Amino acid sequence: MQLNRCFKASSVALLCLLAIVASSIYAKPMLFFHHAFEEASFLEVQKQLQLSIERSTNNKDKLAQQFSLSTLYLTYGRADLLRPLLDQIEAETIEQPIAFDSIKWHFFNAYYFFYRGQYEDADSSFSVALNTFETLSEEQQYVEEAQYLLTVLTLYSSLNQAYLQQYSLAIDRLTSLHLFADEKELALIGGMSLYHLAIISYELKNYEQALEYYQQAQSSLPQQAKRFIARAKMGEAQMINIVGERQHAFALLDEVIDVLSEFQDIDSLAYAYLLKSYFYSKDGNQRETLTWIEESITLMKQLGNDIDIANAYVHYSYTLFELGELDKGLIYGKRAVDLVAPTDDLAGQWDAYNNYGTILAAKESFQEAFYYMSKAERALLAKARLDITSEAARLNAHFNLEKEQLTNQYLDEKTNFCKTS
Prior knowledge:
By secondary structure, the chain is mainly α. The protein folds into four domains: 1-164, Serine Threonine Protein Phosphatase 5, Tetratricopeptide repeat (Alpha Horseshoe); 186-304, Tetratricopeptide repeat domain (Serine Threonine Protein Phosphatase 5, Tetratricopeptide repeat), CATH 1.25.40; 323-382, Serine Threonine Protein Phosphatase 5, Tetratricopeptide repeat; 388-421. 80% of the residues lie in helices and 0% in strands. The chain has 19 helices and no strands.
């Protein structure tokens, strides 16, 4: 697949493009993520926006409200509602859309694919959006919201790169974005860049680093962005369950669930419930494990995201296997396999195939077990680039940190020299 120069650019080139379009970011820096600061629940805000769309008197106002609703769906992880809205926008936009509207549509389209685990398709759509930005930068045609949207594009396209195993590039771009956001006082972007760095650190099994990033994200995010902070705290709880005291992890997770319930954030709640089931599993409480997985699956089915449902089914299936309920475990293991097979999620495929093969072997269906274990091995081999690049990515992040410290030291010394000259 051919990618544009901006998308494949180094962090230096990215900072240059960000700097070019940064001149008027300050006036209304939260135009894109304004729903992060809503005190009302999801359903209340959704209803308000749907009424605004119905009452729009012209296509321009209607499209603006439709994109605002798209942003709400993105911040709540509601890809199930985003897809039909994007299709509606595409069908109703008869005239050639202006470049900025095209950027937004392709960005939301990319996010939809990313959320569904179709990372190659997301990569293509991100590239179209970033190509358009490159054209705008060359022609010096910007609008205020587009400039902030570039930082959002960088935020999500970088995370998508990580899921395509381009870890070093993703870390480099997010680190650069964090520095840029800190310089321009874009607190939400800065906090979210740390949050995404935490996700990548977790994928690379660097749990202590992930914990640190999640904690830094909570400190960096604006205090009004309660749901975003709650998600970062949920990541902190997940890491503490691995490297710290489980009871502390439980306490943090309960705080998160209270906030997410208040906002009716069912996407994040579904994951919080699944995490709670993991915590109980590690405590050896299998019945509570099943209870919380079932709560999670109920919400996940409303969202219709196959990758998440498959992940829950694998956990559910294996817990049933541990309890000796092999027939039921086999049913859910097969459901997980069928859901994850069409996706780009190699880690999920390996997990589902390996789990299903294990239960088949316990049922003495050895030939079929061998088939799925072979599929698991192939998925693991395809994923091997992750293991090869993980150390390189870690070293790259360490190098960037040292380089930043040296740069700051040089600037401090230069400033002191100028003062004494």
